[in-house]
């Protein structure tokens, strides 16, 4: 509770600081992290040792290791990149004269206090810390326990750096225990947004435990629908890229729907391309029977169960089924998908438009890989996360996802009672300036 | 649960309908309500009788009465006014070439399914129903039990009207019991937003009981700060208007902060103006002592208790205290206010700017009555409510508060694997069109 109060207090100051002051603080953080690389890497080695002793998975250990390749330098550069972004604070979205001398302005302002919960990767603390300060938000950070020594060490370095700047040191606070997170999830008076970065289970459990808005996505069940006119080559290429480019990504495809009137060689091309790429293909009963006949000895062809069409495989596995119509494809996606990103492959512009109108997902694509659903690829400069919420930020979220807005009204002693509807007879001019 | 599923199904169709079709449906609702005025008013008389027998308050009975003055005709005109608004669906906010032939578009789309909970006033069903259909959203409506016969009758008329249009009848569903609301508040798979329109207690209890985003405000504790250079006349006029123009409004002022170095006659003018307007003034100890000396026999001058500065009086009562500085005023408002609308009275532009930067509320005003915080006055055409949330919609919310957005990407078979960062060497062009 004290942590949340301190964060709110810091946020109230941070909100008033100029871009110059916020940017200088980021440079100070960058320099300090660079100058204390040795100390940080020492703590990181301790975490790595403990992880090895605890027999954690090689994948996790790889994520922990801050000395791997150019990870440390990339992290440092990331802080400078965020510092160089355009200032998101104060951007004007309305400027309107309500009456002579009475002017309304709507400007972007920080959300306030963020609670960011993430797992093993230690560089996230620098990345998220930079995004928070750049956007004028205070952040409370909770990292996975596997990286606790690295986090502790980085947090100290960052706080020391901030102490010499105008940005209050409590703008970035690190917490260590799960119990504290549980407490903080109830502090809706002081915390404005929770950002979980980690497994689906983490996101789901946080969404269940708080009434504070949660930015993120629990699932990424993306679908691709091949319309009856889809060409074999394009369908195969897009589906293989969407599945195999990064199978652990939330924007990887998990379900493929094929119009039952497509030519058999479209189906065959898709299957062969997937199999060649090492993908296990789970086919719905009808399709399975046909495919088994054509490819009797292929071990990676499997009959799908019903729940496969509600599953995020996050692996080289995909579920495939026939649909009778475009509408059935749309209905299937709206019911079974996770409203993340879905795609239609077709040459028919009317069908594409109907699909893009009908599918209720953050991204609805036409003849393009689902893997394009990404803040960098969309040109946002940076990515805070991908949201399957419909309110506030949806889809890939850039710095603007950390912004709210405020209405500033400037008058000369104007009172409402002089206007029509509130007792007077003056009319509003409502003239955009 | 069935209700929520049916609403989702209706929303999926409604989302695809053109503005013409949605607008025609509103005209059909208007005509049908007009043609069945007698039946509706008969049900309304029954509700009124029951309310009188149950000895409900005259204020409540007045809100119930649909035959009072031109209320019915105003309601009918309201439906046509909403029909005439610009179509909010499909408005483009990004149009960007990511690469040759790969174009990203961001367009406004309906949120989906709204759960609207309101109290006695029966005309709200037509008003909210019209806003929902115009914006492509399905709505589940729950009205207060005092108007149940009127609601039932209006809902039937509206469903009969919709049955003859392209808008699915389940786009507007009425529910009658509290138990059903409790169930629906858990249907986060099917319901996207809850809009409570009613008492603070209603809003607070709903916010506590759901993880679905709630649009609205529980409290409206607005403050006005008179800076040390505030002039007596402007301060008195703005404060009196903010308090008395509509004391039950959420944008009425509840707390007045006065810089302790203001001239005594500024304080005196404010007090006298408030007392003349029939306002009870609760003064913090120091101020109370001074005011008592000057106006010894004034019964409407009362010493304030601490909790008066955390109270929304919703009546002709205001709490007043001295502050030592502009910063103390800002801190007081951020801590004790409800982040709705606050105002500074000053001729000093630097102090005004510091106040507008430092106060973390939806509206931060300078020399203007807090009563201007209103969708109509801001020029939004209509008002869905006023939000003290920081995410999604903040402040007075027009039709755009019922909108989300989607990313539509159109390619020609583009795959991510060809681009830098995902295994290839092509670069994005990121050119806004």
UniProtKB/TrEMBL annotation, chains A, B:
Source taxonomy: Eukaryota, Fungi, Dikarya, Ascomycota, Saccharomycotina
Family, as annotated: Belongs to the gamma-glutamyl phosphate reductase family.
Coiled-coil residue spans: none
Pathway(s) the chain acts in: Amino-acid biosynthesis; L-proline biosynthesis; L-glutamate 5-semialdehyde from L-glutamate: step 2/2
HAMAP family per record: ProA (MF_00412)
Coiled coil is among the record's keywords: no
Function recorded in the entry: Catalyzes the NADPH dependent reduction of L-gamma-glutamyl 5-phosphate into L-glutamate 5-semialdehyde and phosphate. The product spontaneously undergoes cyclization to form 1-pyrroline-5-carboxylate.
Aldehyde dehydrogenase domain sequence ranges: 3-269
GO molecular function, one term: glutamate-5-semialdehyde dehydrogenase activity
Key words, A-Z: Amino-acid biosynthesis, NADP, Oxidoreductase, Proline biosynthesis
Catalytic activity reported: L-glutamate 5-semialdehyde + phosphate + NADP(+) = L-glutamyl 5-phosphate + NADPH + H(+)
Pfam families, A to Z: Aldedh
Protein name per the record: glutamate-5-semialdehyde dehydrogenase
The UniProt record lists the keyword NADP: yes
EC number of the protein: 1.2.1.41
A Gene Ontology BP annotation from the UniProt entry: L-proline biosynthetic process
């Amino acid at each position: 509770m004290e942590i949340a109060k301190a964060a709110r207090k810091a946020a109230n100051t941070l909100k008033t600081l100029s871009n110059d002051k916020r940017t200088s603080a980021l440079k100070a953080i960058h320099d300090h992290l660079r100058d204390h690389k040795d100390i940080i890497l020492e703590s990181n080695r301790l975490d790595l040792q403990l992880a090895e002793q605890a027999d954690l998975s090689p994948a996790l250990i790889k994520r922990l290791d801050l000395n791997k390749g150019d990870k440390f330098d990339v992290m440092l550069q990331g802080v400078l990149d965020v510092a160089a972004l355009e200032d998101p604070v104060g951007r004007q979205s309305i400027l309107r004269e309500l009456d002579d001398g009475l002017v309304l302005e709507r400007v972007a302002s920080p959300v306030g206090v963020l609670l960011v919960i993430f797992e093993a990767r230690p560089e996230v603390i620098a990345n998220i810390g930079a995004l928070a300060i750049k956007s004028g938000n205070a952040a409370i950070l909770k990292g996975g326990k596997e990286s606790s020594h690295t986090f502790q060490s980085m947090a100290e370095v960052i706080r020391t750096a901030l102490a010499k700047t105008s940005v209050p040191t409590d703008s970035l606070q690190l917490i260590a225990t799960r119990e504290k997170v549980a407490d903080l999830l109830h502090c809706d008076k002081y915390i404005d947004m929770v950002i979980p970065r980690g497994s689906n289970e983490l996101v789901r459990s946080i969404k269940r435990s708080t009434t504070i808005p949660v930015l993120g996505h629990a699932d990424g069940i993306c679908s691709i629908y091949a319309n009856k006119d889809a060409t074999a080559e394009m369908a195969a290429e897009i589906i293989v890229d969407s599945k195999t480019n990064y199978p652990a990504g939330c924007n990887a495809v998990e379900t493929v729907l094929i119009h039952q009137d497509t030519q058999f060689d479209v189906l065959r091309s898709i299957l062969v391309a997937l199999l060649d790429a090492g993908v296990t293909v789970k086919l719905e009963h009808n399709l399975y029977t046909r495919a088994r006949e054509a490819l009797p000895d292929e071990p990676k062809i499997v009959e799908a169960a019903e729940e496969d069409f509600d599953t995020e495989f996050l692996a080289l596995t995909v579920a495939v089924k026939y649909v009778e119509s475009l509408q059935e494809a749309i209905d299937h996606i709206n019911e079974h998908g996770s409203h993340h990103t879905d795609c239609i492959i077709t040459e028919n512009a009317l069908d594409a438009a109907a699909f893009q109108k009908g599918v209720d997902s953050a991204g609805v694509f036409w003849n393009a890989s689902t893997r394009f659903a990404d803040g960098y690829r969309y040109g946002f400069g940076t990515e805070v996360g991908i949201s399957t919420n419909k309110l506030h930020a949806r889809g890939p979220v850039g710095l603007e996802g950390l912004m709210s807005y405020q209405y500033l009204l400037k008058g000369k002693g104007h009172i409402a009672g002089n206007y029509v509807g509130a007792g007077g007879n003056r009319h509003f001019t409502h003239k955009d300036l």
